[in-house]
Amino acid sequence: MTHAKFHDLNLSNAVLIFSDIFVLFGIFWCVQLTTNTPDPSGDLYVWDVINVVHLIYFTLPLQLTLLSVGLYNEKIRESYSGIAARILVAISLAYMLSTSLYLITPMSFPEGFSREWMYTTALVALVLVRYIAIRSRYQMLGRLKVLVLGAGERASLINRCMRRQSDRVRIDIIGYIPMPGDNQETSNVSPIFTSNESLEAIVQQNNIKEIIIAADERRGNLPIDSLSWCKMQGIQIIEIIDFIERESGQVAVDHIHPSWVIFNALSTRNRVGQRLYWLFNCAIALFILLATWPMLIAVILMIKWEDGFNAPVLYSQERTGLKGKSFAIYKFRSMRTDAEKMGVQMASRADPRITRVGQFIRKYRLDELPQLINVLKGDMNFVGPRPERPYFTTQFEQSIPYYNHRLFVKPGLTGWAQLKYPYGEGIEDAIEKLKFDLYYIKHRSLILDILILIRTSEIVLFGKGR
Predict the structure, then answer these.
(1) CB 223 within 8 A of CB 196
(2) pTM here?
(3) 258 found inside a domain
(4) Sorting pLDDT into bands at 50, 70 and 90, what band is 3?
């Protein structure tokens, strides 16, 4: 299993997860001690199956909601007050989710057990844990000292794909070693080792844990003997494309070879797996329909209120799906009825065609709720590349390498690209989103889909949807 398969799980956020679990266990145990009488055997508290279930009903919803609001992402850019607000949202959602569990199961909440006090204590404790973690720079736990073998165009991929400091919290790039054949004229990497020291000496002096192979021309130029010695010392050696994929969750499409796509780009399911996956998607779609029907009615009324009783509420549009087959996608109408009187146009961030209600429902992705019909019909999955209009698909296929590989899987309501990249409205954005789509297609699994679904909550709750 490669590092990429963990999809953002590493030592720093693993420590944070276990710290939260430890704190929540402690809170639950303290509440039990203060609300239960001693056992006849003399023990203050006896752990039985019932109490274990109560513990799960308390901790599991909290862990899920903390994940859903982005609090296990060490690259999150929020102030202390912003993180405290997210914790409050997570606590509120967990309280409702836990209440739902008690309502749909035969379990009853213990008498004398103050849930409000327990969740309030959890709020204070989790805010304190985050404060201590950030002050102690928990993101640096397990940070790798990295050496890059190469200082040319391929090495500059690191700067292009990992521009922000938050993108590099897991690694400490000690420097770049120029190699014969490197195109340093187009590169802006630094620091560059200019001494004549051997690779072994540089590795030992700087306590290097990983070497990235990023030479522009590898054939006959790599120090094979030195790299073999490094590998024997337990130093990890990784190719630049695999490094970018692991650290950023994207595939550098400009620098991969056709063989990469042929051998790596598609994770497939057998026929039974496809049927089970469709049932999984249908179950989620039906659950969301049952949970959001009042919201659906509210959106319909808002659209009618703004545009008049005779104005259409839904609209359908042709999109490109699995293997290039077209299908009709359904959405709540968020633009004027004459939005395309000038021809086919790609939506933009501040599109003047969007109505006032449309601005709101697009922000919180409410306009996409009718796509649950597409999921039930089998046109779409919940998770996958976003479906594009055939007009733009044809354009992108002609100008973007490997763009048609997005059609290897069904499109989705949400996806890895939606989590990792902001709203896109042109060919440059399409290229960037393709990098994340190829990563998803290569690594897709039920676990990754569930992770994306949970983390999509952050987009919806904090108005980051498009």
Answers:
(1) no
(2) 0.82
(3) no
(4) very low
